[in-house]
Amino acid sequence: MNDEEVGDIDQGKFIEERNVMCYIACIYTMGQTIKNNKIVHDAMIKQIDMMFPPEMKEPVKATIEQCRGVAKKYKDICEASYWTAKCLYEADPANFVFA
């Protein structure tokens, strides 16, 4: 994996390749939003409350709620993570943060 594949995710550049999908899952795991191979949306909300500036909290939480069902469409955690992140970006690019 290289920076060309994952370096612009925060700007909406999602390359539909397995290693990119699993990279996103790894980032979510490190952020403690994946438990038992499932995305835990309540954990995402908790991270927002702890880490985001006040003006971003409500819009980002609304986007998380909007994209809540995406992960359920995929049994594979890499795919679930990728498509969830892509949904979050497409729903609100201005407030999307990927780190």
From TrEMBL:
Gene3D superfamilies: Pheromone/general odorant binding protein domain. This is Uncharacterized protein. It comes from Loxostege sticticalis.
